[in-house]
Amino acid sequence: MPVLMIDTHIDIPWEEKTAGGLPCWEKRDQADIALRETERRFTLPKAEAGGLGAACLAAYTPQASLDEAGHEAAWRRARAMLEAMEEMVPLHVPGRAVLCRTAQDVRRTAGAGQVALIPVMENGYPLADDPAKVGHLARRYGIRYITLTHNGHNLLADSAVVRQGPAEAHGGLSALGREVIGEMNRHGVLVDVSHASRRTMMQAVDVSTVPVFASHSCVRALCDHPRNLDDGQLDALKASGGLIQVTAMAPFLRRGGGGTLTDFVEHVLYVIRRIGVEHVGISSDFDGGGGMEGWQDASESHHLPAALERAGLDGSEIRAVCGENMLHLMERAEKEIVESQT
Question: Are strands 213-217 and 52-60 parallel, antiparallel or unpaired?
């Protein structure tokens, strides 16, 4: 039986910041999405060659100043990136990819032999202090998750990695962050705790009415990195019904870097042994620093199910890890929308 593979975190190439240090909102042409021979690790030809059925494309905003100028630039950037995703399909890959808003859309698209592209947002920074923006992003652009933080605290929550400033700003989630999670639940937007501090992550599990997930993280017991989840966090994910999407970021797989597909599989197996096969998935973080020996770009995606089979997983377990777990979580979030409207 074929495996529907869903890579839950891929960046789209974009200029990082302006000369003034603000998030860059200048739109970048995405024509290289149609090329096989390019430095970009995720393109349609590469996905097709690797048998990758779906990908979450992230509108990523780097953390900058927590003032009006920073927040306005971040909001402009997030919308520009989501609009670039919308334009990318008809302009550069018509008939080969579909921008999808629901799990059913993803299944239908992959079943038709096309690549499903799922819009998401990395870093809640662009929301500033306005929770209503969540509903706008969900309705207008169909985003399916928001990563609460990136590298640095924002108004919503504390981050796992702080490059300047205090170790904590809120002691986890702020009151605003809790309100934003409520809006995310109401609009079917999953709560992504990758990049969040441990306190933020554990509090998000308690606050969210929908299971939370980590879109691109690894296991701290195997690699002691602040971006990885420890056993207590994994147990909390299990209790909530959530997921950790093990990622192909070499420094998260093996301390000091050099992580390979073998290490990746070890992280997947650790999660399965600790909390069960229904709580783990896959992600690459391609074009955001991800890529490792054995999965250097989307054309090598077919190596994953083969490696999981060699590790002893059966067909149903491989399908769960490679995509079904993520689809079930998306469906759970979609059910919340229906329930909130009745």
Answer: unpaired
pLDDT of residue 1: 55
CB distance 280 to 328 below 8 Å: no
Contact 280, 268 (CB under 8 A): yes
Reduce the DSSP state of residue 107 to 3 states and report it.
helix
pLDDT tens digits, one per residue of 129-167: 999 999 999 999 999 999 999 999 999 999 999 988 899
User: Does the pTM exceed 0.85?
Assistant: yes
| Other Cβ atoms within 10 Å of 7 Cβ, number | 34
Contact residues for 217 (Cβ-Cβ < 8 A; gap 6+)? 193, 194, 227, 228, 229, 244, 245, 246, 247, 252
Set out the domains of the chain in order of their start, with CATH numbers. Answer: 5-340 (3.20.20.140)
Q: In the chain, pLDDT over 90 holds for what percent of residues?
A: 96
**111: which residues sit within 8 A by CB, 6+ positions away?**
none
- In the numeric block, which tokens belong to residue 131? 């929770």
In this structure, how many other beta carbons lie within 10 angstroms of the beta carbon of residue 231? 13
The CA-CA-CA angle for residues 330, 172, 223, to 5°, reads 75
Indicate the pLDDT class of residue 112, thresholds 50, 70 and 90. very high
Helix residue ranges per DSSP H, the chain: 44-50, 68-92, 103-111, 132-136, 175-186, 198-207, 231-240, 250-253, 261-275, 303-310, 315-319, 325-340
Lookup: tokens for 283: 């992600």
